[in-house]
Amino acid sequence: MSRGACSSEREALIAFAHVVEPGDARIGALIDRWGALGLVDRLSSGDIGIREQAAMRARIARVDPCEAEAAAHAIGARIIVRSDREWPTQLDDLGAARPLAIWALGAANLRLTALRSIAVVGARAATAYGEAICRDWCATLSEHSFTVVSGGAYGIDAAAHRATLSVGGMTICVLASGVDTPYPRAHDALLARIADEGLVISESPLGQDVRRQRFLTRNRLIAALTRATLVVEAAVRSGTTSTANSAIALNRPVLAVPGPVTSVMSGGCHKLVRETEAMLASRVEDVLEVIGELGEFIGPSPERRSLDDLSPSQARILDGIPARGVIGIDDLVLDSGLSASEVSGALSVLGILGFVHEQADGWRLARRG
User: What fold does the segment set 302-365 form as a domain?
Assistant: First the structure.
């Protein structure tokens, strides 16, 4: 049988990426079963149980993978398939719906930059509040060496990319169109800058325009590529929440920023927290604690803990420790009216929380930040 222009698994994957809509798990399952090159064979030689077999065979025959690679190279892009070292293996969590190939525009290595990444998504009709939160938090995330991944749209997406670039951070834009077909058109300059300093990627071939369904399939790619998804603003029914739902389905953390109860653009965030496993993020430190390596980002230093967290006995003991110098347990027992065991227990907790330090001759206040 003739395989047309496909002579390798790589070329067959590129060919199928031209004729199959992104995220088509039905065709993806067949490729998982027989391999892309094996499926090309079966399209011609046998029934594979799909009605559009003849049409797909004809479309595959018209694709020249070598020409596709040459076209990508001509604009400074490259095609990444599952067997390449640059392939981000976390995308395989999508199973049969994972991409067949990815077009990447930019010098950065996709696999390496995505290892430590977070999706930052939100409403196109973002409010000033949402954009301010997005700018501040993305700058902080970038300063902690996290790659910010978003979709290049108006509103929160654009704010996330711009804030990251402004501090010299790494950002990845995932398009629903081909990487040579910027969308929205008004973001031509922004997407060009992202390609220069970060990465613009898509699972749609060159020349492909956006379609409604491709926004949803693009969102699952954003969720799968990253460690977690941060939703800054979202209406109750929006494409943004589809990204969050994809992340939840993949058992990836989702964080949502709260907003005014009167804001329509925060309704989706509130609903995510109320009805799903999404976590409320009221400060950027909440995000860092979730996406960092174990122990990388601890909570606020013990010195900054509120006195309101202390029990009455702990607060009484803390009040009894002089501002300068040390004091022994016997004196604290006498001053506080508590038993020796109660004083000892309170001091142990205060020490763990960082309020006091034990010395050879007694206890002293810790230096406070």
Answer: Arc Repressor Mutant, subunit A (1.10.10)
